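Regression check, pyridoxal-5'-phosphate case 373:
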Amino acid sequence: MKNTPIYLDYASTTPTSPRAFKAMQKYFSKQYGNPSSLHYYGRQAQNALDQSRTEIARILNCSYKEIIFTASATESINTIINSAIQDPSSDPHIITTSIEHSAVLEACRTTKAKISFVQPDTKGLIEPNQIEGLLTKNTVLVSIGYANNEIGTIQPIKEIAKTLKNHKAILHTDATQAAGYCNIDTKELGVDAMTISSHKIYGPKGAGILFIKENCPLYPLIVGGKQESNRRAGTENIPAIVGLKEALKETEETKEEETKKQKMLRDLLIKQLLENKEITLNGSMENRLPNNVNISIENIKSDIALAYLDNQGICVSSGSACTSNTPQPSYVLKEIKNKNPENGIRITIGRNTKETDINKTSSTIKEMIRDFT
Ligand code: PLP
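Current build output:
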């Protein structure tokens, strides 16, 4: 029998953890009420919703009133960007970076707002004063990804928040990739809005968080019923929300240990890969997610490499999952002035990764280089 393929694409999605899965189960077929119903079953669902919101607010160090449940980080991001430009008296201006996830870039592109893009340096980092220099009296939103989904670069969100202290613009951070590893205390970070996705932190697919400070106005993106205090219509997905809550709790409890373990595996893989002169590491080594390895291999395009590795039972990706079925040079690698943006491979480690997986991956990549050169 063939071995189970090695999964090294945790930035695309994570398996639902057994603990999150268990917590969700009874809400499918036993406590299946609609939280808007006033009867016994409705109250059960409402309790689960309230408890999940309270627990998540505790972790994010905010009020439960500041948590809105959505179906994905993409929806949370679209909501915040759409909301920021709704004031009819303004001529809205948004500042973001040119290496954001497509959820941010596309949501910005389809608004009528003026957009300024901050350019990262060759390591993928941005400087807080680059943002300061772009602020105008019309800036309504500054949206900066906490950690990049392709190259894993962690941005200085706390410092960015300090530079915006005296400006009315809302500071939003897309913490989708960072939530598993970085500090997500909203007060310590000083952010006004933050987005998180359940399926990137070992929760189920179909749930997202939008944190937005109580004093920031929020115009709903999805209208209809009065759910989520009139800020996101539609019957709440109770099993997914409970799973997300449990996954976030587990993530917080294991963050330190997982960060240490995954960093060790990441550094081992980087060391082994860089023994090949054809390989270069993309993005900052210092300010990098503990699970991210992004490399370019001279003369091997990423679609070829991905197919080869898949054939050898190694599942990695060429960048963001949302763009990888259209083989194109990575816009993130282009923005950091990488010489071979069509050669980028993203290898992302997770809770189930073992040292043997790392060894197998680096030896297979070595063989691939031998086969192609
Ligand atoms: N933001 C970042 C940084 C991501 O990596 C992703 C998913 O890849 C998203 C947003 C979108 O998340 P979701 O799949 O929950 O819509």
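Comparison notes: The chain has twelve helices and twelve strands. The two ends are 31 Å apart (CA to CA). No diff flagged against the previous build.
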